[in-house]
Amino acid sequence: MTDSPPTDLPLWSLHPQLEQDTETIGDLPLSRLVVSNDATYPWLLLVPRRPGASEIIDLNAEDQQQLMTEITVVSQALKAITACDKLNVAAIGNMVPQLHVHIVARRRDDPAWPKPIWGAVASRAWDAAEREQLVAAVRGKVRLLGTWGPRHLAR
C-alpha cells in the first residue's frame, strides 16, 4: 500500500493568463498568493487551489470561510504596507475563468482614481528591487497576521 494520492483527482494549476501576468509570492492554506506584474498599483491576487472553481459559490462552506480569512489577512497586510486610501477587493473573472480575487491598494493620487484601474493607463513593469521589497513585506506581514504555520509563504 502506498501513500500516493488517487490518480483520478483533477490537478490544480494556475491559469496560463495568471501565470503570465503575475509572480508567485507563496501559498496560503487555500490560495496561491501572487503579485501583479503591473507596478502601477500595489496589486495582489488570491487564487484558491481548487480545480474547476470559477465562482466563490463553487467552493464548499469551509473553503469559502478560509478564502474570506485569507482575503482579510492579505487586505490588512497590503493596507498596512502601503498606507493606501482605499482597498479594491473583487472576484471578477470576466477574462480569466479561474476563481481569483483581486486586492488592489488605491491612492487618491493614483492614475485612475477614483475610477476602476482596468484600462486606465498602460501597465508599468516592476523594478526588480521594488517588487522584491513589496513581496518581502507582504510575506512578513501575512505570516505575522495569519493563523497558519511557518511553512506558508516560504520561498
In words, what does this structure look like?
- The chain has 155 residues and is an alpha+beta fold.
- The chain has a single domain (16-142), classed as HIT-like (HIT family, subunit A, 2-Layer Sandwich), CATH 3.30.428.
- Helices cover 30% and strands 19% of the residues.
- It contains 3 helices and 5 strands; from the N terminus they run H-E-E-E-H-E-E-H.
- It has helices spanning 16-21, 61-82, 128-145, and strands spanning 22-27, 31-36, 43-48, 86-90, 101-106.
- The chain has a 5-stranded antiparallel beta sheet with strand order 1-2-3-5-4.
- A hairpin with a 6-residue loop joins strand 2 and strand 3 (43-48).
- Helix 2 packs across helix 3.
- It is globular and about 50 Å long.
- It starts with 15 loop residues before the first helix and ends in a 10-residue tail after the last helix.
Précis, in short:
The chain has 155 residues and is of the alpha+beta class. It has a single domain, classed as HIT-like (HIT family, subunit A, 2-Layer Sandwich), CATH 3.30.428.
Spatial order of strands in the largest sheet: 1-2-3-5-4
Helix content: 25-40%
CATH topology call: HIT family, subunit A
N-to-C series of helices and strands: HEEEHEEH
CATH superfamily: HIT-like
Total number of helical segments?
A: 3
Structural class comes to alpha+beta
Q: Can you summarize the main beta sheet?
A: 5 strands, antiparallel
Mean of residue pLDDT values? 90
Task: Kindly estimate the percentage of residues that lie in beta strands according to DSSP.
Answer: 15-25%
- CATH architectural type: 2-Layer Sandwich
State the shape: globular
> Low-confidence runs (pLDDT<50, min 5 residues)?
none
